[in-house]
Design brief:
The complex is a heterodimer of chains A (about 300) and B (about 500). With about 300 residues, chain A is mainly α. Chain A contains 13 helices and no strands. Among the domains of chain B are: about 110 residues, Alpha-Beta Complex (Dipeptide-binding Protein, domain 1), CATH 3.90.76.10; about 210 residues, Dipeptide-binding Protein, domain 3 (Roll). In chain B, the strands form 6 sheets. In chain B, strands 13, 14, 15, 16, 17, 18 and 19 form a 7-stranded mixed sheet that branches. Chain B has a 4-stranded mixed sheet with strand order 1-12-11-10. The chains are: A mainly alpha (about 300), B alpha+beta (about 500).
């Protein structure tokens, strides 16, 4: 196991190099540059040339890239053009808020999704199954920003139950985390439903029933564990998607996380922040994938990380 | 299963219990004021690269003082300066300093602080420092500083409204200082986080400490969240309310709603450097083809009025121009007479989705007379780059003028050397040079009026709409004055009357 983890981490270094290189290229290929944004529209040609040189943007791309890679190896992503501060600490400052949002959303999605999936999967074709299926399709179809705004109008404006935006109290977490969780809940519910419905037809479930176990004992003791395997995989692999959703949700709810920082940095062509944030997210997603594989192998002894089944 | 349901139930109960903390009005019963931040505030260094942004400026004017500032009515008032005068050439300006002013740490504000701040302002090359190329500031005594310009510049006093004074010795990227900044503005910074910025009164402020105990500016980029928070009382002040949302806000009995004339004018330049738009007759005809009055009535019933000039009516240098009458038949005839190629597609560029309906309406109006236009909505960074490269045929912008001085728009954007719209007119250049060099305010207004008449008649651009800002604030507040530039001061706020 240890050897496998080390091997995966070494592969991860290559993945991180790829991610860092790709984002370096993408931000520079994208039209628009930070110098124009920083100096505004009234700068003289001399001012533009001076700032371009001081930011190192006048150097050949390859030279910029080599310097960038050397700095990245030291986890130094340079200074944010706009904030005037080192980029990585600015990014790291926002991580706890995004982590709080993502973990809460994941918890909601897993708990509610599993409950709904079990409910529907244990009685395939029933009215409950149909209602759950219809709801989950709807939840997956609604755009996140629209759901967010609807929740604000309902729970903040109409019922006056929750704050409309911001952070600071547990109440502030409710609407953004529910908004972010809803499509994910639908995925978990649908997957659990299918998995449970399939498992319930397995011979060992029939054996369990014939031994006189109640339906609840069969579900909890036998069907659930096997049904969890694909769910765990999806939860782990969906972290990247959840991060993308967080970018939108954080902007709707003024949540002070990584998402809103990235949006501002991209629109202002703040290369250092975009690069630092993307690198960090790539690392987090990679770690989640590794953890998912480890958990997966523990849940299903037939799966071995070294590839042997 | 039972366990899962139990967890969900507990979570639901816990979350509903949380609602009691923020369900009511945020500031009711207290002297704290919460403001819905319309613009991002990423930095409070007034001399840094972000210092010139609208959001940072709103924060900076709370913490720091300036030599002079522009009042909401467009007139100038002294802040750290009590009097100012120029030499006859308007290239040397002397400012008499207010005595007894202290920073928030109790130390006196000196001429050296002002001179060193100006040096830092220029050295750090923030966006606003571009207005002072080659300018120097020196103190002649403890009570006087002199600003020298390399050439006559009558707009200096208003330009200085974006120059903020810090204590001497603050270095570039001085993180420690800006974590607990010391300024001589009406407020002190209590907290600055990515989500909100909190000010408390500066007890040492020369004008007396503000009457509110705390002002929190909360970042709320999403309009629905901002307006909901305003209506539920979570925030006390918001602005930038669009027309389609205004009736709902006006229906709230707890709110005062006011629209104020801003300094902004919808400006649609023609690229006069391309053959199709080289002739003034063609540009005028295109303007004439568009029914701006109806578009404004439909899209901006409360926050737009047909513009009467190149700059807003509250700007120094405004002179009313003859309205351009909508006449599509005459427009088409004029275009045909001028040999306009109706097969050519013009590129209309703009940034910001907020302006999409307006530009779509313009395209539609031009299509009615057979003029084809490609509407190009661009990201801000791309828009700015293309704007400077003249990579467009018609350019839409909402041009604001924080100094409320025509020098900042007419004087800056329309000389040949500015190369902003492909238009070059030596007569206009001469007028602008005279206006910029005249220390006589009446003469400046006359000269800018003459210049504006040329710009208007030659249809360097279309100037369809003067913009109003819609503000709404809780009736529990008094002393709030909406600002034409979206930079309201919170110094005079009081809770209750």
């Amino acid at each position: 196991m240890f050897r496998v983890i080390v091997k995966r981490l070494l592969t991860g270094v290559l993945v991180m190099w790829g991610a860092a290189s790709l984002i370096f290229l993408i931000v520079r290929v994208a039209p628009g540059d930070p110098v124009t944004i920083l100096l505004g529209t009234d700068a003289s040609a001399e001012q533009i040339a001076e700032l371009t040189a001081s930011l190192g943007l006048d150097r050949p791309l390859l030279s910029q890239y080599l310097t960038y890679l050397t700095d990245v190896a030291r986890l130094d992503f340079g200074r944010s053009y706009l904030l005037g501060q080192p980029a990585m600490p600015e990014v790291l400052e926002r991580v706890p808020a995004t982590a709080e949002l993502m973990l809460t959303s994941t918890a909601i999605a897993v708990v509610v999704g599993l409950a709904l999936g079990l409910l529907a999967g244990s009685r395939p074709g029933s009215i409950v199954d149909r209602i759950v299926s219809a709801c989950t399709i709807a939840l997956q179809s609604f755009p996140t920003f629209w759901v967010g705004i609807m929740l604000i109008l309902a729970f903040a404006l109409a019922f006056r139950m929750l704050p409309s935006a911001g952070a600071g109290t547990p109440a502030h977490l409710v609407l953004p985390s529910v908004t972010l969780a809803l499509p994910f809940t639908a995925i978990v519910a649908r997957l659990t439903r299918t998995s449970v419905a399939e498992t319930m037809g397995e011979p060992y479930i029939q054996t369990a029933r014939s031994k006189g176990l109640t339906e609840r004992q069969v579900l909890a003791g036998h069907a659930l564990r096997n049904s969890l395997i694909p769910v765990v995989t999806v939860v782990g692999l969906h972290m990247g998607g959840l991060m993308g959703g967080a970018v939108i949700v954080e902007n709707v709810f003024a949540w002070p996380g990584l998402g809103s920082l990235i949006v501002d940095a991209v629109s202002n062509r703040d290369y250092a922040v975009v690069q630092a944030a993307t690198f960090l997210i790539a690392g987090i997603v990679m770690l989640f994938n590794l953890v998912t594989d480890l958990v997966y192998s523990q849940l299903d002894p037939r799966i071995r990380l070294d590839g042997a089944v | 299963m039972r366990r899962s349901l139990a967890i969900v139930a507990v979570a639901a109960l816990a979350l509903s219990a949380c609602t009691t903390t923020t369900g009511g009005t945020a500031g009711s019963g207290s002297t704290e004021v919460v403001v819905a931040g319309t613009y991002p505030i990423d930095s409070i260094d007034p001399h840094g690269p972000q210092g010139g942004g609208t959001g940072p400026q709103m924060a900076e004017q709370a913490i720091f003082s300036r030599l002079l500032r522009v009042k909401p009515d467009g007139t100038l008032e002294g802040d750290l300066a009590t009097a100012w005068k120029s030499d006859p050439t308007a290239s040397e300006w002397t400012f008499t300093l207010r005595q007894g002013v202290k920073f928030s740490d109790g130390k006196p504000v000196t001429a050296k602080d002002i001179v060193d701040s100006f040096k830092r302002f220029i050295d750090l090359k923030g966006t606003n420092s571009a207005n002072f190329p080659g300018y120097t500031l020196a103190s002649t005594s403890d009570t006087e500083v002199v600003l020298k310009a390399p050439k006559p510049d009558a707009a200096i006093p208003r330009k200085l409204a974006v120059f903020f004074v810090l204590p001497s010795g603050v270095t570039a990227n001085d993180t420690a200082f800006f974590e607990r900044p010391v300024g001589s503005g009406p407020f002190r910074l209590e907290r600055f986080s990515p989500n909100e910025i909190v000010f408390v009164p500066n007890e040492h402020h020369y004008g007396g400490a503000p009457k509110v105990s705390k002002v929190t500016v909360r970042k709320m980029p999403e309009l629905a969240a901002r307006l909901t928070a305003l209506r539920t009382g979570e925030v006390d002040i918001a602005w930038g309310i669009p027309d389609d949302q205004l009736p709902a806000v006006q229906g709230e009995s707890s709110l005062t709603v006011q629209t104020v004339q801003s300094s902004a004018v919808f400006t649609m330049w023609f690229n006069s450097s391309i053959p199709a738009l080289k002739e003034a007759a063609v540009r005028r005809a295109l303007w004439q083809a568009i029914d701006f009055q109806t578009i404004i009535k439909q899209l901006y019933p409360q926050t737009g009025t047909p513009s009467e000039g190149v700059v807003s009516a509250n700007t120094l240098g405004f002179v009313k121009q003859e309205p351009v009458r909508h006449d599509p038949a005459a427009a088409k005839a004029a275009l045909t007479a001028a040999g306009f190629d109706f097969n050519q597609k013009l590129r209309l560029q703009f940034a910001n989705a907020e302006f999409r309906p307006f530009n779509q309406a313009v395209v539609s109006e031009l299509q009615k007379i057979g003029v084809q236009v490609d509407l190009l909505e661009k990201e801000q960074a791309v828009f700015t780059k293309d704007l400077l490269a003249l990579n467009w045929d018609i350019n839409f912008q909402q041009l604001s003028n924080p100094t409320l001085d025509a020098a900042n728009t007419i004087g800056r954007l329309y000389p040949c050397a500015a190369k902003r719209n492909g238009y070059c007119n030596p007569q206009l250049d001469q007028l602008l040079a005279q206006a910029g060099a005249s220390a006589d305010e009446k003469e400046r207004v006359r000269l800018y009026g003459e210049a504006a008449r040329i710009i208007w008649q030659d249809a360097v651009g279309m100037f369809p709409m003067a913009v109003k800002h819609a503000y709404a604030w809780n009736k529990r507040l008094s002393g709030f004055t909406p600002d034409p530039n979206g930079l309201p001061s919170f110094a005079g706020l009081q809770v209750g009357s």
